[in-house]
Write a structure and sequence with these properties.
Layout: E1 5-9, H1 24-33, E2 38-42, H2 49-60, E3 66-69, H3 75-80, E4 85-87, H4 92-101, H5 105-113, E5 119-122, H6 124-127, E6 156-159, H7 175-182, E7 191-194, E8 198-203, E9 206-211, E10 215-218, E11 225-227
Parallel strand pairs: 1-5, 2-3, 2-4, 4-5, 6-7
Antiparallel strand pairs: 1-8, 7-10, 8-9, 10-11
Amino acid sequence: MSARNILLLSSSRVHGYEYLEYAQKDINNLFRKNNVSKVLFIPYALKDHDKYLATVESVLSKWGYDVQGIHKGDPKTLVEHAEAIFIGGGNTFVLLKALYDHGLVELIRHRVLHEGIPYLGSSAGTNVATKSIATTNDMPIVYPPSFEGLQLVPFNINPHYIDHDPTSKHKGETREERILQYQELSHAGIVIGLREGCTLLIEGNSMILKGLSRSRLFIPGKSPEEIEVDTDLSYLL
């Protein structure tokens, strides 16, 4: 797995920042270090692919990258020749089903893990990069053939992780309780709760928490713990 060049964002929009702005430095470092000039964008998580592409293109083009939408050509051919892949947010179930329907899961996995092309994921694009989408916050509005993700990393992520508000009168389960319930299953593993503005940078066998704030680490059989920005999490790989 030494070929990995991956940046996983909790979200693309963070309060006080423009689209992708909070992660601009890390995105540019990822792409420029790997001599990327053209980015293949996969907009499958939202219905209006052209509108989504235009949003991404308006930002990345200003940063010096050409952006191509996967829906503009043959998906497999475009992935096979991509310099870098960016999968954006939306509905995780819709996204994963589309990746399976187009026969892209194994292909993307191979290109990222064995050929080292950079992978940028945000929200749903981060969810599908992991072991499975079992810890997404999204509604299961379609049926992918499997919950198994791209498996670029050997754990799950909960993007947009939020903490319990002690002043709230809401009596439903907290996000932490939901994750702990998931980990009661024998096949469940590690989950990282990425708060807004948090990112994970994976380079080869190294992984570091980056971004604007701490995240929450859930290891089965242990109490959840806080992880600070710049923490080395390579041991989770």
